[in-house]
Automatic annotation (TrEMBL):
Organism taxonomic ancestry: Bacteria, Pseudomonadati, Pseudomonadota, Betaproteobacteria, Burkholderiales
Family: Belongs to the short-chain dehydrogenases/reductases (SDR) family.
Name of this protein: NAD(P)-dependent dehydrogenase (Short-subunit alcohol dehydrogenase family)
Ketoreductase domain residues: 10-206
Organism: Extensimonas vulgaris
């Protein structure tokens, strides 16, 4: 593995880093000189079970390449446990500089059949977990006047997807969280950005493949390595990204995209105020050409990744 210096002397916490994208981010950050807390409860894609061995294997890999790492098996979805994740960095390495909120689970179900438990489980890990771990690190970032957050969002939330109301809501919520962190922490030289990753992982592996369209989409994703996400995470965590905050980057194979964020695209005004009738008569025909179609991610990103 290449040895870099982009993150020399920095301490990073990477949640959900026993496998997949998180593992590659942890390894990349270690290769760039960071000391890494590998956090993973060792659960299945749906969040069941706890096996410390995946996280321990990543710790061992980092140490084998001459890096420094420590294992945390606490859950991001609990406030006290999330604080222990950050404390693990302080106990082992004396500081915290980087938080990567990568931990996640899936409970896919069509909206009309989704249970409250399936909704809450996904919100707890993705959205609440991102808040808890970020919040636990915030006082340390504030007092040292530096720090970087990297959060994982998804085109499921940014664009849309079927059967993922829980996941999409959590992932779009993370965008709002990241933007507000960026604003609230700007005066303390703390940055917050999102990555929307495309990669073949255990999580994507649970996408249904019942139709030819789904099979084609999964075949396309299978070409994408989780390792292709890691360089962007390492860059955003580094001092080279000192001017980068409140942004959303999508990484797809060897492609990097800056994603749009909601802004007004068309406006209309009337001196006398609107009625339902005048909205139907005047606003609808004027704005309809600018409506966003109901699309899923694979329609917007329709070309093969390069």
């Amino acid at each position: 593995m290449h040895k870099g210096i982009m993150l020399k002397d920095k301490v990073a916490v990477v949640t959900g880093s026993g496998r997949g994208i998180g593992r590659d981010i942890a390894l990349e950050m270690a290769a760039q000189g960071a000391k890494v807390v590998v956090n993973d409860i060792g659960a299945s894609v749906t969040g069941e079970g706890n096996d410390p061995s995946p996280g321990q294997q990543v710790v061992d890999e980092i140490k084998a390449m001459g890096g420094q790492a420590a294992l945390s098996t606490d859950s991001v979805s609990d406030w006290n446990a999330a604080n222990r994740i950050i404390q693990c960095a302080l106990d082992n390495f004396g500081r915290i500089d980087i938080v990567v909120n990568n931990a996640g689970i899936l409970r896919d179900r069509m909206f009309f059949a989704m249970s409250p438990e399936e909704w809450k489980a996904v919100i707890d890990v993705h959205l609440n977990g991102s808040f808890y771990v970020s919040r636990a690190a915030a006082p340390h970032f504030k007092s040292q006047q530096s720090g970087a957050y990297v959060h994982m969002t998804s085109t499921s939330g940014l664009i849309g997807n079927l059967g993922q109301a829980n996941y999409a809501a959590a992932k779009l919520g993370i965008v709002g969280l990241s933007r507000t962190i960026a604003g609230d922490m700007k005066r303390y030289n703390v940055r917050s950005n999102c990555i929307s990753p495309f990669a073949w992982s255990r999580m994507i592996g649970s996408i249904p493949t019942d139709t030819p369209e789904q099979q084609a989409r999964v075949a396309k994703l299978q070409k994408l390595s989780t390792a292709q996400i890691a360089p962007m995470a390492a860059f955003l965590a580094s001092d080279a990204a000192a001017e980068v905050t409140a942004q959303i980057f999508a990484v797809r194979g060897n492609e990097i995209f800056l994603m749009s964020q909601p802004r007004p695209i068309r406006g209309m005004h009337t001196a006398e105020g609107w009625t339902p009738e005048t909205i139907a008569e005047r606003v609808l025909p004027a704005m309809k050409p600018n409506f966003y179609p109901l699309e899923t991610s694979n329609i917007v990103f329709s070309w093969d990744p390069v």
